[in-house]
Amino acid sequence: MSHDDFPTDRPAVVTCGLPYANGDLHIGHLRTYVGGDVYSRALERLGQETAFVSGSDMHGTPVAVNAEQEGVSPEAFALDWHERYAETFPKFNVEFDNYGHTHDETNTEITRELVRDLDEAGHLYEKEIMVAYDPVDDQYLPDRYVEGTCPYCGAHARGDECDEGCQRHLEPGEVEDPESTITGNPAEYRERTHKFFAVSEFADYLSDFLDRLEGTSNASNQPREWIEQGLQDWCITRDMDWGVDYPGENPEDLVLYVWVDAPIEYISSTKQYSERVGADAFDWEAAWKEGVSDEHPEGGEIVHVIGRDIIQHHTIFWPAMLEATDHAEPRAVMASGFVTLDGKGFSTSRDRAVWADEYLDEGFHPDPLRYYLATNGGFQQDVDFSWEKFAERVNTELVGTVGNFLYRSLLFARRNYEDGPDADAPSDEVAARIDEAVDEFAAAVNDYSVRALGDAVTDLARYGNEYIQRNEPWKLVDEEPEEAERVIDDCVALAKAIAVLFEPLAPEKSERLWDQLGEPGSVHDATVEAAREGPAGDLREPTELFEQVEDERVDALNEKLEARVAESESDDAVEDGDESDDEEESETDGTDDAADADMADIEPISDDRIGFDDFQDLDVRVGRIEDAEGIEGADDLLRLTVDLGAETRTIVAGLKQLHDVDDLPGTKVVVVANLEKAELFGVESNGMVLAAGDEADLLTTYGDAEPGTKVK
């Protein structure tokens, strides 16, 4: 691994978090896989040697439970879903170099070998622990068969993760008030011998690793809290019979925890790719193992693209395993935010989702969805999908900006110059603008920003529209034919640059554009240097690349979704007598029905963003209310005297009807201190007290921050 700008002379591996072989894919899942594919293709455009790999996560309790319900073996159940995923991803132009699964022979062998290496190096030990047991059903319960209360935050939790609260990984025996998810019986804890990985020994290493880690900031910041709280050793075995058997002596017939063999699939899938294409084309050992390459003993450039719900596994457990077994550490982790639907959480059991197959069945091309998912907000931010927003982005940016420039330019060139204008190279102005776009593209790769990759293209197309409008070649054809030819040659050169730079986001449309330009070979093999070269000058008859999404189409899609959700919720009410939903989601799903209920009435998050510098301009402080009294003539307003540490301010706030005025003194609040002063009902207000929602839930502090402490 290096920290040099891409491209480097080391082999790179881009991975995506493994989809759990347990259910259909929707567009919330696709965000991560599209993001990984976009990033991998962008690296290749820069000339980086890259392997893009993933695989299906086959093991774990949900697979075993659902297979039993369907009356098939866990292997048959998981393989069926694996094959569906392997067919679905290419339909969205997500092209893995290798897509394996965790139950195949390669991953089983590498997993057992790596665990043996951990054991021989002294990093594993046995420990008696309390494991949940169902005394009525007479069976031990693996973590996903257990639900209860998180011991850290008090939220409802699964046996292995506080999925509805603090998101912390939980070890067997930690969940309080355990219940069996199979029978609903109260569970009890009994002693069992299990294998542990001494993760706590790697605390210093992991702290330094996070300092080096590139990618999205949430991936490096979130794990620091766990390290500061003190790392707990990791139980790596489970009481069940579906998984990779623990290697060596195994009197309890334990299998390895799913999160042991799942990330190892990244290595296994890369090995399978190398075995298929040959080590000369891609050397998996040089990428993954330390000391294999004399030139680069630290290994290659490993980039993990994941959902943010599995950050801990990829920044604590996985790098500790790699470090302990002399493998290359990840260079970067890109953790995506979740996808909501019209401001509400996806609900798979209520059919409240836009399914991957459904999107295609509606006749939409995959590339507009790829563009939407990749560019609608920063990668680590949550994205809200609606058919209205999708249509707006397609119509405004893909049709109105990119498509409009390409079609009008190429059509004019084809009709006036047949095979294309004869100028050798673009003008200095256009060549400089293309160079700028290539630099923006490279910067986006090194900033791990798939959104900025799209911006580089749309900004270039926007410049192209302005350029052709400013020069008006249709007026120059007769009066200044040489100048007209130069302008159109510039436009064709811009179109070629767009084809190259847009390939990661819209690979199929970019290949079609490449063909219209008459360029030799495939755009998928072109690097950014081709964007700087003049066009080949053998134009084909152009067609419009993107199709407008009409308002009537959006209305029809919304009606279908609403009818489907209503029917599903009606079925739930008939079957269950209420609208509860206890379906278990996959480890990498990032959506659940608890989120759906919580977010039912929440206004969608704005797509308008502010810069960090703008946020820094806000002076937000902790304050303490010293006195509160009503204002004559104002039904809702209170005059608050607020201690801000350095001074005491008078602030007017609309809290009178929502809070007991006598209870307010002594309350800590959060105040925007540098807001312009305002006069309300004759009282000068010098700041703003922050509160949430229509009930004016006052923002306060969890700890003992003193008045005047700055919020940042």
Explain this structure.
There is one protein chain. Helix content is 41%, strand content 17%. The protein is of the alpha+beta class. The protein has four domains: 12-102 and 261-341, Rossmann fold; 112-256, Methionyl-trna Synthetase, domain 2 (Beta Complex), CATH 2.170.220; 384-532, Isoleucyl-tRNA Synthetase, Domain 1 (Orthogonal Bundle), CATH 1.10.730; 614-711, Beta Barrel (OB fold (Dihydrolipoamide Acetyltransferase, E2P)), CATH 2.40.50.140. The strands form eight sheets. The chain has a six-stranded parallel sheet with strand order 3-2-1-14-15-10, sandwiched between helices. Strands 18, 19, 20, 21, 24 and 27 form a six-stranded antiparallel sheet that branches. Strands 5-4-9-11 form a four-stranded antiparallel sheet. A hairpin with a 2-residue loop joins β22 and β23 (683-685). It is globular. Residues 573-604 have low confidence and may be disordered. ATP binds at residue 348.
Break the fold down into its secondary structure elements and pairings.
Layout: E1 12-16, H1 27-45, E2 50-56, H2 61-70, H3 74-91, E3 98-101, H4 105-120, E4 124-134, E5 139-140, E6 146-149, E7 156-158, E8 176-180, E9 188-197, H5 203-212, E10 214-215, H6 217-229, E11 234-235, E12 237-238, E13 255-256, H7 258-277, H8 284-288, E14 301-307, H9 311-324, E15 332-336, E16 339-341, H10 356-361, H11 366-375, E17 383-385, H12 387-417, H13 428-446, H14 450-471, H15 473-479, H16 481-502, H17 507-516, H18 528-532, H19 551-576, H20 593-598, H21 612-616, E18 620-630, E19 638-643, E20 648-653, E21 668-672, E22 678-680, E23 683-685, E24 688-689, E25 691-692, E26 697-698, E27 710-711
Parallel strand pairs: 1-2, 1-14, 2-3, 10-15, 14-15, 16-17
Antiparallel strand pairs: 4-5, 4-9, 6-7, 6-8, 9-11, 12-13, 18-19, 18-21, 18-27, 19-20, 21-24, 22-23, 25-26
Helix pairs in contact: 2-3, 4-7, 5-6, 5-9, 6-9, 12-14, 12-16, 13-14, 13-16, 14-16, 15-16, 16-17
Protein name: Methionine--tRNA ligase
Domain TRNA-binding: 614-712
Binding site for Zn(2+): 150, 153, 162, 166
